[in-house]
Amino acid sequence: MAWKIVGGAAALLLIVLGGLAVATNGEPDRTAAFAEYRRPLAIPFPDDNPFQAAKAELGRTLFFEPALSRDGDRTCATCHIPGKDWTDSNPRALRNDGGVMDFRTPTLLNIAWIETIFGWDGKFRGLETVARLPLTASGNMNMPPEEMVRRLSTDPNYVAAFAKAFPEPVAEGGPVTQERIEQALATFQRLIVSGPAPFDRWVEGDVHALNPAAKRGFDLFNGKANCAACHSGWNFTDGSFHDVGVAGEGALGRGKFFPNSTALRHAFKTPTLRNVARRPPYMHDGSLATLAEVVDLYDRGGIDRPSRSRDIRPLHLSAREKADLIAFMESLDDNGAEGPAYQPIGPEPPRP
Ligand code: HEC
Ligand code: HEC
């Protein structure tokens, strides 16, 4: 008897709370969810490679410098193309001998907010260390490090730019070093930030910024469809690795480095969803051509196997719910806003 009364009271309380949760404009109260999605106020720079204007400017020049490739045929922007959200449209990146690489070129948008581990399978530790592989890999820029340093050291403009960006004296040799090339490139890449999207205006209180389908999609994303379990926060990634049931048996992903872990087998890094609608194809291997194919994969629950994430399961979405999820992802588009990477660089770290 006693617990029945308590149970009844609890049910009544729930009804009252449920009623309160509907705001006066007829929409659910999403205040708590919105708090997770606010854009950051500053770009994070690490203590061991802080922001410095001349270094960022030098990094920008190097990012577009063909002399960093042995045959002068490639730059970082050959694959990370600014006008294509710092990726390309190839399912897998192109080698310089006509072949393809194992992975699709990831976007560099919001790379400053990725902590520590980079690459689809997490092969890189720290943004500064990433450049070493594309610069030196045969099939890519194919550049021996000593030759790279030698080339830049014979160019007076570069010698002056390195001396300005790195005022500390060097123990031996000139101001150009491989480590400094990597530090300058990383500083520039941290300026690659996606601009405000309709979704951000909605989060900030403009109730008309999103259409009803996108709003329903947001609720699905955070609710029934469970997408926010991994695509979390304003950059829509947890920076972690999961098997969402895409990869073929041969593609080990993070599991390559952790052969004894079931959970990391076929696990790839959660990509950001900023500007996602306009940069197909999708997934680490570019195997899905459209967002509709991506949503269908999640609806099926991908490949059911022991490594598959516990957050992935068949969703049984209706056609309207699938369309709503896509409408939501479309609302993450910044309409080509040119962020700090495109702007003149001043003495203070630019705002994201
Ligand atoms: C052939 C095309 C190509 C070129 C040229 C290229 N990249 Fe990449 N980049 C890729 C691919 C493919 C990956 C994914 C590699 C992996 O996960 O193993 C990648 C990954 C990255 C990442 C990690 C992104 C993340 O989300 O973890 C960064 C940072 C990066 N590249 C920066 C650069 C820089 C700097 C240069 C120039 C020095 C460069 N890239 C040149 C294709 C390219
Ligand atoms: C268990 C974590 C997890 C969940 C839950 C999840 N994702 Fe993903 N998502 C990932 C990972 C990891 C990848 C990359 C997988 C790969 O390349 O093999 C990815 C890739 C994507 C991509 C492709 C992005 C690109 O640039 O290639 C889209 C779009 C996407 N997810 C949307 C969604 C939606 C919509 C949902 C909910 C229905 C969802 N995700 C649920 C982890 C997750």
TrEMBL record:
Record domain Cytochrome c: where: 212-333
GO MF terms, alphabetically ordered: peroxidase activity
InterPro entries according to UniProt: Cyt_c-like_dom, Cyt_c-like_dom_sf, Cytochrome_c_Peroxidase/MauG, Di-haem_cyt_c_peroxidsae, MauG/Cytc_peroxidase
Gene3D superfamilies attached to this UniProt entry: Cytochrome c-like domain
Major subcellular location class: periplasm
Any matching Pfam family: Cytochrom_C
Top-level taxon of the source organism: Bacteria
Keywords per UniProt: Heme, Iron, Metal-binding, Oxidoreductase, Periplasm, Peroxidase, Signal
Protein localization: Periplasm
Record flagged with keyword Metal-binding: yes
Keyword Hydrolase: no
This protein's name: Cytochrome c551 peroxidase
Gene: ccp_1
